[in-house]
Every structure is written in structure tokens, then in C-alpha cells.
């Protein structure tokens, strides 16, 4: 199979990748508010690890349904990094931060620095080389988010803040490794295998926590835990890693600059947290930065062909270049 219309294929790939990344961001934007709901009756470790146990069961069904082949030897190390970042690190650290008193909106603005951290990891691990204009645009977005944090009174550092900063660093590693692996296998298999890899830990520990922490399954707790298990921990990564594979890790990560604004919106709607005029101004600035990053160039690693990143190596199509 060949793609001969090389003049139009790159633009359609970029649009498709941008849309997938945006869909992933939309799914992730509900994570922090849903975690707050789950804390209504559940221990933070049950939420942080239990979501991975539930998602691992879904991943096992999906992989068995398609009879997915096992990852190759060198891919397991990358999957371990994905698991450490997005299966263990981010869920547990953000849940602990929220349990220690960080509000949903406070957490959202700090995690808003994630795109900049992911872009750095893309340079270090995935061979991407963003242009100077890209760095200026993404840096402006990070500064805007930081300024927004100070305006909202979140400029001081507490233990919750440190947990959130640690969460965004390990999550950036998981995103970069997952985006790199999504060039070699479909994105949904990346998160599925990462979940399966650590299931021997997450599943028994979750059962032990459920037996010893006295969970209270209130309506809020059930709704929140269900979403972070199915949406945040699993389905959201289908679109997110596929989008990264299509348009590059660094560029896709900048779409996530919209996530804190979306999270603030959901926090106001579902948690009755205050949303003021400053939020609207921050949203405008973030959207401008996202638009600028999408107009800048990011050089990809030479082994990646645009549009062929979301299928296994032996199933890829060839692309005729001009």
C-alpha cells in the first residue's frame, strides 16, 4: 500500500494527529476533579493504584481480543518507563497532593507546566529537535501558566506543591517514552502493555488496600474512581499516544496547555470551585501559545515516517516523498 498524494498527506496527518492529541487532553482534563470526587470515600492509595488494576483488566481483554504479539526485548524497558510515569507516578503523587489539601484548580495550574517538561523529555529521549520559535512559544505558555499560578495565590511551595511538581516530571517521562513507542506499535497497545507489565503489583496491592482501608463507596467516590480507572488511566491514552506518534511528542504536548483551563472549568462545574475573570484571561493566553506552537517546526527522528507511526513496524505503509 502506498500513499502517493504526498502534497496533501502531511497536512491531513497533522490535522488528524492534532485532533487525537486534543481528544486525549479532553479525557485527561477530567482526571483531577474525578480524583477529588473519589477521595470522598476512598484511600488515596486505593485511587492511585486501584485505577491501574482496573485498567489492567481492560487491557488484558483488549490484547487477548486482537491476539496482540508480545513487545520486543528492547521495548520492555520503554514500557517500564511508561508504567513508572503514568501508571504509578502521576496517579499516586497527584492523589496524595489532593489528599494533603491541594485544590483541583491549584493542582491544575501546576500540572499546566507538563507540556514544557514533556518537550524537554522529547529532546532527551525521542530524538526530536524543536525550533527556536517552538521553544519561545512553549516557554511563553509555561510562563503564562506560572504567572497564572501566582495570581491565583499558588506561588508558595507546600508538600502538596512538591508532590505535584514530582508528578509532572515523572509524567513527562511516561509521555515521552509512550510517544516514542507509539512509533513502533499502536498507541493503545503501549498503555495496555505498560498496565499488564505492572499488574502483578497493582492488582494484589489493590485487593489488600480494599481489605484494610475501609472504603466508603459513596456516589461521588464511585463516579470519580470509575472515570480515573477507565477514562484517565486507559481510554484517554488511546488518542493521546496516537496523536503523539502522528505529529511528534513535543508538538502534541503543547496541546496540553489547554488542560489546566479545562480542568478549572470542570472544577467549577462539578466541585463548585471559584472560577473568576483571571481564568478567562489565562485561557486566552494559553490558546494563543498553543496556536503558535502548532505553526513552528519540530524536526523528527529520522526513523519516523509521518503518518505511519501508529501501526506495528511490519504493518506500516510506505510513503512516497516528493
Describe the structure.
By secondary structure, this protein is mostly helical. The protein has helices at 9-29, 31-38, 44-66, 73-99, 104-111, 114-125, 132-151, 159-181, 187-212, 219-247, 249-254, 259-271, 277-294; strands at residues 2-3, 129-130, 298-299, 318-319. The longest helix has 29 residues, at 219-247.
Number of helix segments? 13
Rounded radius of gyration (Å): 19 Å
Encode the helix/strand succession as letters: EHHHHHHEHHHHHHHEE
Mean pLDDT, rounded to whole units?
82
Name the strands of the widest sheet in spatial order: 1-4
Protein structure class: mainly alpha
Q: Kindly state the percentage of residues in helix.
A: over 70%
Quaternary class: single chain
What is the general shape? globular
Q: DSSP strand (E) fraction?
A: under 5%
Detail the poorly predicted runs.
1-8, 303-322
Question: How many β-strand runs?
Answer: 4
